[in-house]
């Protein structure tokens, strides 16, 4: 049985979380970006990407980390930009960023192209990235901890609420389910000489519920479901669709996540298999569902 939570738990988490550094600057950049894209009538998607870390100490040396390379979010960002969306890319520092995979590929020892061709490929990637940023279509916001991720998601979602149906959330980040509340945390590095460590972890409330109900209720919302046990994946994805009242759930298994995903909507299930990659057909499919959602009165 999955534990449920009260909205009071959410308030408590935000109340006790450490203050967001540079909040004023981030807020100002966000407001400008959203306002401008809203005026231009662009659709806007917030893509969350990468793992989150839950610190064990305030001056953090150790933390619990959720696995995610950030590849799904970074590559999807490229395709959403190509599809005409403006993108807010909320990503874990040091995880994959849009267009970087093309540069990394150029450094592989088995690359068949000449050095000159590789330089051109890299230039092209940097150019695409640069254009998206200077044309005001891509805004990147980074986080490190679960506290920062949740505060930034709330800030972005509340601001995007004004876009109503033109807004989309694509929640591909691997979000911690457990954390040590800030008030219960040691100030300094936990000392091993004190013997074996027992930690009481609290549950992170499912923020997707709050996002749908309070922060941005008119937006199109895509959640992800990651499992390692294939026998429970589809059951959990279908449950999530109704439980969190989202428009689509992208179900994926850890080991095959780059080959295949299954999108669950109220209309049924759609299996999406790798073409060049999985993200291209996935973004195409979701763009169409979003268009139908906007056109439906
Ligand atoms: O980054 P890659 O290496 O390319 O891998 C991509 C991926 C496997 C990480 C991605 O495709 C994926 O599945 N991301 C979601 C992973 C995850 O957190 O799954 P979950 O089953 O624990 O959570 C389901 C949903 O609830 C997620 O959309 C999450 O944003 C949301 N959630 C989770 C915890 C929490 N406290 N609040 C939430 O809202």
From TrEMBL:
Q: Which Pfam families match?
A: DFP (PF04127)
Q: Which residues form the DNA/pantothenate metabolism flavoprotein C-terminal domain?
A: 159-267
For this entry, list what GO says about its biological process: coenzyme A biosynthetic process
In terms of SUPFAM superfamilies, this protein maps to: CoaB-like (SSF102645)
Q: Give GO terms: molecular function aspect only.
A: catalytic activity
What's the superkingdom here?
Eukaryota
- Which family does the record assign? Belongs to the PPC synthetase family.
What is this protein called in UniProt? Answer: DNA/pantothenate metabolism flavoprotein C-terminal domain-containing protein
């Amino acid at each position: 049985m999955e534990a449920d939570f009260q909205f009071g738990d959410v308030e408590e988490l935000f109340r006790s979380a450490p203050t967001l550094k540079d909040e004023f600057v981030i807020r100002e950049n966000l407001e400008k970006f959203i306002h401008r894209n809203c005026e231009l009538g662009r659709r806007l998607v917030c893509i969350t990407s990468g793992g989150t870390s839950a610190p064990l100490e305030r001056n953090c040396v150790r933390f619990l980390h959720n696995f995610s390379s950030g590849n799904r979010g970074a590559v999807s960002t490229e395709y959403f930009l190509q599809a005409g969306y403006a993108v807010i890319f909320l990503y874990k520092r040091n995880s994959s960023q849009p267009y970087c995979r093309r540069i990394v590929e150029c450094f592989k020892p088995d690359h068949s192209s000449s050095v000159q061709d590789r330089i051109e490929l890299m230039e092209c990637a940097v150019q695409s990235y640069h254009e998206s940023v200077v044309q005001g279509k891509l805004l990147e916001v980074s986080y490190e901890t679960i506290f920062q991720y949740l505060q930034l998601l709330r800030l972005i979602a509340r601001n995007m609420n004004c876009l109503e149906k033109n807004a989309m959330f694509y929640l591909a980040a691997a979000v911690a389910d457990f954390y040590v509340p800030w008030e219960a945390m040691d100030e300094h590095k936990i000392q091993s000489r004190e013997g074996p460590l027992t930690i009481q972890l609290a549950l992170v409330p499912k923020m997707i519920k709050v996002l749908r109900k309070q922060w941005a209720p008119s937006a199109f919302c895509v959640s992800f479901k990651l499992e390692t046990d294939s026998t429970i994946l589809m059951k959990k994805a279908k449950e999530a669709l109704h439980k969190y009242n989202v428009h689509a759930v992208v179900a994926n298994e850890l080991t095959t996540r780059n080959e295949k995903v299954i999108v669950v909507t109220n209309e049924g299930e759609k299996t999406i298999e790798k073409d060049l990659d999985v993200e291209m057909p996935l973004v195409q499919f979701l763009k169409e569902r979003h268009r139908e959602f906007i056109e439906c009165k």
